[in-house]
User: Fold this.
Amino acid sequence: MLVVALKPGHDGAVAAIDNRRLLYSLESEKDSRPRYTPLLPTTILDIAERLDAVPDVVALGGWSDLRPHRIAYTGAGYEGTHEPTVTTSRFFGKEVRFFTSTHERSHIYMALGMGPRHAGPVRTVLVWEGDVGAFYLVGSDQRIIRTIPVMTAPGARYSFLFGLADPAFPDSGAKPRLNDAGKLMALAAFGNAEDAGPDIRHVVERILKQDSLYPAPKDEYRDSVLYNAGVESVECKTAAALLTERLFQTFAQVAREQTPAGSPLYISGGCGLNCDWNSQWDELGHFSSVFVPPCTNDSGSAVGTAIDAVSTFTGDPHIDWSVYSGLGFVTDTRPDPARWRPRRLDHDALVTALSDGRVVAWVQGRWEIGPRALGNRSLLAEAFGAGTRDRLNDIKQREDYRPIAPCCRIEDLGKVFHEDFEDPYMLYFRHVRKSSGLHAVTHVDGTARVQTVRESGNPQLHRLLTAFAARRGVGVLCNTSLNFNGEGFINRMSDLVLYCESRGIADMVVGDTWYRRTEG
Assistant:
């Protein structure tokens, strides 16, 4: 059974699953389009070109948009766990099943279907994102038994704090910005919740109890200490730490009181990208295991809708998948030989260049699904000098308080980090050993968000890390996404060359070819 699913709204995407195997998950923002781009016709054409048959099932994810005087619904709509709608229709001359289910269900079934199987009677799913914040109990028949509401719009509440402190954010009429949550996560590490005075605590509690965040009610907070205080102010950093703590406490209390102890936890929604919260869920001790998919935010919603269709028709949501299920790199031009000299990739020579402080644009295979670069569309650099972090943030044209993540061979985890668990999708924090000297990737609170690399998971990156370990003692490098600021991953040669030439990057590796910028 071939299922093709479409995700409308921001973070538009299309996914194809054939006989329980994820063939493609294509996000419209990838290939250097603006972040959070809605589903584009070109994205649909990209997947149509690569499929060998007309799908058996066309699945449309639900969505809703706020418009003047009304809410406009797409498909099954945004919220709810009611049963999907299935009809029969003709599609390019073939009779197919047309399926639609809510956006909320796409998150539930994304986590279940991508996660490990569980033989017990109940699974617990947490969906926390811009609008929805709830637990769900799912039975052994993969059907939702119970919904446990916790808080509406946890992600929007988190993002709103950043906008409240940001003088550039409008007082009225604006939605919480989708990219502010990641920035606030970085700022929270600079603060300490225990330092929050009564004024900051009052504002945080107001945000937690706010009736609606759409539009963001910044004007109502003019009397607060955080209003236009500046996102790098002590007040904002302290409030960020406190809000991070209070949001988790709120959800953790409900989890302890209303979800089965010892059940596995599956996490979905944009808040699943918060490594601090993921680590706390793992440490809570209430659940037998914790799983977070790499596309836990809306970038994986098309996959979730496709899985919901698979589960509806077969009774089993589980699929086989790879995080590298995007498109292959497009060689739409050749680098100018007057400026770029190609040579066959020599890992030892590349390690020398990295050790000498060169930044390398690294492109391999198909792009990663989800928002994090995991060694196929990456900027790589040595991780020992603190100046490397500043240079990478300058290249990426982003704030200097943003941390840089490392990638590390599993063989070296215990040497440089206190925790040696595997995390191939860069979703948890761990503490850096002070003796490691990894200054470029150690955040202000002593943690790092690490991609662990096993040879079977990413052999090309593992081979480079192994060569680096032979030279420097440990296989660790800086690994940050290869993209223009505010855009999805670079996926064609013309954009790659433009990026490197405009950012002062003199080394590009595409597959097994290393391009070096000529002098002059």
Observations:
- The chain has 13 helices and 23 strands.
